[in-house]
Amino acid sequence: MKFIKKIALYLIIILGIMYGYQAITGRSITTLPQEIASKFNEKGSSESTNPKYLSDPAKRMPKDL
Question: In this structure, is residue 4 part of a structural domain?
């Protein structure tokens, strides 16, 4: 009997979350993974995030002839 009560409780919680999301946003919760994936796939900044180190000034100096 305890096992059935646990299953029923979890089912009520999951259905409550699904219904609450739909009631608040007006969209089905099944569209949520698609929205999350599209956010990750958006084209971000094309600038590199790697650190830029200054070049060695000795290499930039012209050599004496």
Answer: yes
Question: How many residues make up the chain in this entry?
Answer: 65
pLDDT tens digits for range 6-65: 999 999 999 999 999 899 988 888 888 888 878 877 766 566 667 777 677 777 777 765
Total tally of structural domains belonging to the chain = 1
Task: Evaluate whether residue 5 is within a structural domain.
Answer: yes
Closest CA relative to residue 19, chosen from 4, 11, 45, 1: 11
CA distance 16 to 8: 12
Domain boundaries, position 6? 1-31
Cβ atoms of 51 and 43 closer than 8 Å: no
Residue 64 is encoded by which pair of tokens? Answer: 């004496």
How many CB atoms sit inside 10 A of residue 22's CB? Answer: 13
User: What predicted TM-score, i.e. pTM, was given to this entire model?
Assistant: 0.50
